[in-house]
Amino acid sequence: MNKPNNGTVRNWINGVWTDHAGPTIDVINPATGQVVTSQPDSSAEQVDSAVSAARSAFSSWRTVNPSVRAQHLHAIADQVALRIDELATAVTIEMGKPLDEARGEARKLVAALHFYAEEATRLRGSIVPNADDGFSSLVEYEPIGVVAAIAPWNYPLELIGWKLGAGLAAGCTMVIKPSEYSPGSGLLLAECVAATELPAGVVNMITGAGQTGQALTQHGDIDKIAFTGSGATGAAIARGVAKATSLSMELGGSCPLIVTETADLTEAVRGTLRRAFRNAGQICISINRGYVHTDVYDDYLAALAEGATRLVVADGLQTPNADVGPVVNQEIFDRTTAHIADAVQRGARVIAGGGPISDLAPGLFLQPTVLADTDQDMLIMHEETFGPVIGIARYTDLDEAISQANSTSAGLAAYGFCRDLGQTFTLSKQLDFGNVAINNVDAGIINAPYGGRKGSGFGVEHGREAIDGYLHVKHTRIRHGA
Ligand code: NAD
Question: Which residues does the UniProt record annotate as the domain Aldehyde dehydrogenase (predicted)?
Answer without folding.
Answer: 17-475
